[in-house]
Amino acid sequence: MADRSFSDIPLAALYDALNPWGPSDDFYLDLVMSARSVLDVGCGTGRLLGRAREAGHEGRLCGLDPAAAMLVQARRRAAAEWVLGDLASACWEREFDLVVMTGHAFQVLVSDEELRSTLARVRRALTADGRFVFETRNPAARAWESWTPDQAREVTDAHGDVVRVWHDVETPVAGDRVTFTETFDHPAWERPRTSRSTLRFLAPYALDRFLTEAGLAVDERYGDWGRGPFTPTAPEIITVTRPGRTG
Q1: Three-state secondary-structure class, residue 167
Q2: Would you say domain 9-137+201-243 falls under CATH 3.40.50.10310?
Q3: CB–CB of 26/47 below 8 Å?
Q4: Could you check whether the bond before residue 172 is cis, i.e. omega within 30 degrees of 0?
Q5: CA nearest 202: which of 87, 118, 133, 108?
Q6: What pairs with residue 243 in β-bridges?
Q7: Domain residue spans of the chain
Q8: Which of 20, 116, 119, 230 is the most exposed place for a label (fewest CB within 10 A)?
């Protein structure tokens, strides 16, 4: 899940093991390969753009992430622009045919101010016929109910040690924000490392209000990574937008 836990190098090195390549990556890779210039907001370890370059993408690929530890991993991949920071510190003007936010990174935009600022800068970065594509979990599916310690995961790090990871959600969940702790336990550490994060689960009508205000029009919407239609019980709200009128 997207959060700000992976801010140091040992944890950043585990990110890809905890989040193996899957259908969502295939979905985005197809979009990236068909665009001349791509900005990946919250690029993490750079896996998506690295895979695109390896697959023969010859255009501009730019990854943006606020975590220096993640970009350490990204810079080990195939050539791309790796930029430390966020959209608030960027000044791109109509430079990208495609902007993406993958891995539920959109959900870390918790406040209305963050959402408005990010969406405004995304629209500014897009060419006139560009697309902004992202996903957020459908709140009706209540994914956070499965984020419990008994659903702990184990991964093996580069040295062969097993790292255990689990989540605890703070209850009761009120409104559209879910706060949780993520704990990493490594046999070589004196104590587990724990971080606290909040994700926002926007309903489609609320999401569309922010998009319209930013001048982004919904072009397509899917409920799963096979491009199935969005339904009230679909797990994902996968949204493809294009620049429209400013609201």
Answers
A1: strand
A2: no
A3: no
A4: yes
A5: 108
A6: 216
A7: 9-137+201-243, 140-199
A8: 20
Extract the tokens encoding 98: 């495609």
The DSSP annotation for 219-245 comes to: EEEESSTT-PBP-TT-SEEEEEEEE--
* Calpha distance 135→118 (Å, rounded): 15
Predicted local distance difference test score (pLDDT) of residue 188: 84
The confidence band for 8, taking pLDDT boundaries of 50, 70 and 90, is: low
Cα 12 from chain centroid (whole Å): 15
Q: Which two tokens stand for residue 14?
A: 């585990």
- Residue pLDDT, tens place only, 38-91: 999 999 999 999 999 999 999 999 999 999 988 988 999 878 999 999 998 888
- Mean pLDDT for the stretch of residues 116-125: 96
Q: In one letter, which amino acid is 89?
A: S
Edge-first strand order for the sheet with 162-169 is 153-156, 162-169, 177-185, 193-200
DSSP per-residue letters across 22-43: -HHHHHHHHHHHT-SEEEEET-
Backbone phi, psi, residue 74, to 5°: -60, -40
Residues near 104 by beta carbon (within 8 Å), at least 6 away in sequence: 1, 2, 135, 136, 137, 199
Confidence class of residue 1 from pLDDT cuts 50, 70 and 90?
very low
DSSP code of residue 99: E
Please give the structure tokens belonging to residue 34: 């068909």
- What does pLDDT average to over the chain? 92
